[in-house]
């Protein structure tokens, strides 16, 4: 069995938190590769901040280009309509049955996974790796792990809590800093930053341009 990490995310844009988490999980759990899978559209997130799937995919490929263990898959951005994690994992299982999947997330996902579509099918396909994030204590995470194990009758190895360093960085904060003209150097790879500047993503101007579509946006996040 090949041990493969799956790093799903909006990656709007990809940042040091995603990259370091992937690298440390690869190392600690002795994975063969990490597959980054940018999510498709649309989302619960503000339309004005949403960069197209193709562009988020491109930024992700730029970010990982020098790491031979990292790959980026376009399967979610290519799928029509909402994209759900259970579908992605089932498709991967079907296509590559020889792989053992580790779905890598931050602590926030450990607390929201119950409300995702068919969480029990996600657990059938992979081990969930939840990393410490945003001041959530390991104690709270342990409680939630137990709750999920009981709710979905899971083996205690199905959820792995990962003691990651606290890296209080998010794409939201990066977008906000860019919109205010503040520096995001070192939070995202240089080549991704150059691309964002070239395209004018997340700037005040691009926010204004999409303000109208933002008001109309009522979409729900598909996870
Ligand atoms: P946004 O602010 O737009 O929600 P984000 O920074 O949370 O962006 P996502 O693309 O939503 O990034 O996250 C993808 C995955 O990476 C999620 O499982 C999330 O919990 C995890 N993640 C993101 N940033 C960190 C971080 N700093 N530490 C640990 N995990 C993180
Ligand atoms: Mg997030």
Brief rundown of the structure:
The chain has 223 residues and is an alpha/beta fold. 44% of the residues lie in helices and 16% in strands.
Explain what the structure shows.
With 223 residues, the chain is of the alpha/beta class. 44% of the residues lie in helices and 16% in strands. It has helices at residues 16-28, 53-64, 75-78, 85-95, 107-112, 119-125, 138-151, 171-179, 190-199, 204-209, 211-216, and strands at 2-9, 33-38, 70-72, 99-106, 126-131, 159-162. It has a six-stranded parallel beta sheet with strand order 3-2-1-4-5-6. The two termini are 26 Å apart. Mean pLDDT is 89; it is low at 207-223. The chain binds adenosine-5'-triphosphate and magnesium ion. Adenosine-5'-triphosphate binds next to helix 1, strand 4, helix 5 and helix 8.
Offer a few descriptive terms.
alpha/beta, binds adenosine-5'-triphosphate, 223 residues, binds magnesium ion, disordered C terminus, globular, six-stranded parallel sheet
The hetero compounds bound to this protein are:
adenosine-5'-triphosphate, magnesium ion
Rg = 17 Å
Major β-sheet, in short?
Answer: 6 strands, parallel
Sketch the topology as an H/E string, one letter per element.
EHEHEHHEHHEHEHHHH
Please render the helix and strand layout as text.
Elements: E1 2-9, H1 16-28, E2 33-38, H2 53-64, E3 70-72, H3 75-78, H4 85-95, E4 99-106, H5 107-112, H6 119-125, E5 126-131, H7 138-151, E6 159-162, H8 171-179, H9 190-199, H10 204-209, H11 211-216
Helix pairs in contact: 2-9, 4-6
The protein binds adenosine-5'-triphosphate (ATP) and magnesium ion (MG).
